[in-house]
Amino acid sequence: MEDVNLNQQPGEAAVPAATPIPRATLHDEVVGRLRDMIVEGALEPGIRVPERDLCARFGVSRTPLREALKVLASEGLIALLPNRGAQVTALTTADIDEMFPVMGALEALAGELTCARITDEEIAEIRALHYQMVLHYTRRELPEYFHLNQKIHERILEIAGNSTLTRMYAGLAGRVRRARYVANMTQSRWSQAVEEHETILDALAQRDGPRLAHILKMHLQNKCATVKESLEAEANAVSANSNDQI
Amino acid sequence: MEDVNLNQQPGEAAVPAATPIPRATLHDEVVGRLRDMIVEGALEPGIRVPERDLCARFGVSRTPLREALKVLASEGLIALLPNRGAQVTALTTADIDEMFPVMGALEALAGELTCARITDEEIAEIRALHYQMVLHYTRRELPEYFHLNQKIHERILEIAGNSTLTRMYAGLAGRVRRARYVANMTQSRWSQAVEEHETILDALAQRDGPRLAHILKMHLQNKCATVKESLEAEANAVSANSNDQI
DNA sequence: CATGGTCATTTTGAATGCAAAACAAGTTCA
DNA sequence: TGAACTTGTTTTGCATTCAAAATGACCATG
């Protein structure tokens, strides 16, 4: 595991503008990096990771690291067992069953708000994203498809213009992304998803808020089923001792 | 301001079971107490409160206090300005306009879920709470009314049986509570709220999920309007320099 | 009188140090 | 053999310490 010294300032100008600007404080930076590591699965759920190890990895002392752990715990990404350190929370199918309906309700609201505010230009923009996504679908390029898919949902949230809504949704989506990272879709699920996206675009273009809300809610329900199927398939394939967790 | 030493353990058994069990760790305890202080308005929004002061108040060192600040910041209750300390976030009418629709969407979902699961006994329980609340309404006992009102909403969330949903709702409700604390209702708003609660109870008893969802969404919209009215009235009454904040 | 600048003080951000709790390995005893 | 106890080590929770940034007072300059 490569060491990454956060308070590096040797090159200074050598840092390309592309790298996400190191946040003002160390603990903020650590929160971001740890969150990424967790989402990307670099840290196994349920396994104890001593603070010292993480400190060494990030090149910071325990103080900012511990602050970061507290924040991530309040977000639900990790669990803090008193006197026993932190561990990444395992995402069970029960958790998925809880989270997707909430995301569905949030996206439904976003759909309604967005229909009331969206401009013609924004509709055109989403249409472009949509057909780009469809292209990736016809080419069976799953990662690219996922990326565009996510971008469309993000854009709808964004246009809704409710930052509280966006923040809450992002919190859930971040946790779920870990599951969706490993998820594989069946062909029928995939084509179903694309069909639903057609109707999403249509409802958006017609600015039919209630219809879009309903479609999104259903769409999230289907996503939930897809993720769970894939999760269970994986669990069965891997072994019997794996306990529906990722 | 009275000092409250958190790591007290002189009496041990002397602590009555009524006091909320001191949490395992100091920082957890501090998070809880600070949150309460903020919600109850003991800390003015926008005013800088040095860490040392808070430490002295709680009788802890800066380490657990700072950890608590980070957590509350991630919840949105306070803002952390780098190198400039923390301050309670002011709740603007714009924030209220953002939060209530989200709470509405969450409660609507809770309503649907609850209708699908609620037992006869639980309906009876909520009915009891409801009529107790109505009693306080007829007696014009606002604080007691508020308490029962809140309890009914909490109970619906709880029966929905989705802990993620409950947690997200609680996060928003906590922030809004600060506003509702100071909010006064007009008579017409109050009677409207009670009427709406009648329909809530009715939809629950009939287990009509979609109807309950719709009612709750509307109910929250009206609550939003009520809070804003009261907030604006207050702002006008107090002075012109107050900037829609509490 | 206002504006800008220097320096002491305060306050924050992060590192280090210390005590208590958990852990692990060996040891005793049934 | 195996369960319970002991002891040394590790790890966590918190306090303290140190350095950098911000604040504020004072002074100089236009």
What does this protein structure show overall?
2 copies of one chain form a homodimer. Helices cover 68% and strands 3% of the residues of chain A. The first copy, chain A, is mainly α and 246 residues long. Chain A has 2 domains: 12-88, Arc Repressor Mutant, subunit A (Orthogonal Bundle), CATH 1.10.10; 93-238, GntR ligand-binding domain-like (Four Helix Bundle (Hemerythrin (Met), subunit A)). A two-stranded antiparallel sheet of chain A has the order 1-2. In chain A, strand 1 and strand 2 (85-88) form a beta hairpin. The longest helix of chain A is centred in the C-terminal third of the chain and has 30 residues, at 209-238. Chain A is globular. Residues 1-19 and 240-244 of chain A have low confidence and may be disordered. The interface between A and B is medium-sized, with 34 and 33 residues. The structure holds a DNA duplex (30 and 30 nucleotides).
Question: Helices, strands, pairings?
Answer:
The structure is a homodimer of 246-residue chains.
Chain A: H1 26-39, H2 51-58, H3 62-75, E1 78-81, E2 85-88, H4 93-117, H5 120-138, H6 142-160, H7 163-182, H8 187-205, H9 209-238
Antiparallel strand pairs in A: 1-2
The structure holds a DNA duplex (30 and 30 nucleotides).
TL;DR?
Two copies of one chain form a homodimer. By secondary structure, chain A is mainly alpha-helical.
Structural class given helices, strands, pairing of chain A? mainly alpha
Briefly, what CATH class of the largest domain in chain A?
Answer: Mainly Alpha
**CATH architecture of the largest domain in chain A, please?**
Up-down Bundle
Q: Largest chain-chain contact?
A: A-B, 34 and 33 residues
Question: What general outline of chain A do the C-alpha atoms trace?
Answer: globular
- Output the number of helix runs of chain A: 9
Total beta strands of chain A: 2
Portion of residues in helices of chain A? 55-70%
| Quaternary | homodimer
Percentage of residues in DSSP E strands of chain A: under 5%
Number of domains of chain A: 2
Low-confidence stretches of chain A: 1-19, 240-244
Instruction: Give the termini separation of chain A.
Output: 21 Å
Order of helices and strands of chain A: HHHEEHHHHHH
Strand order of the largest sheet of chain A: 1-2
Assign the CATH superfamily of the largest domain in chain A. GntR ligand-binding domain-like
Report Rg of chain A.
Answer: 20 Å
User: Main sheet of chain A, how many strands, which sense, barrel?
Assistant: 2 strands, antiparallel
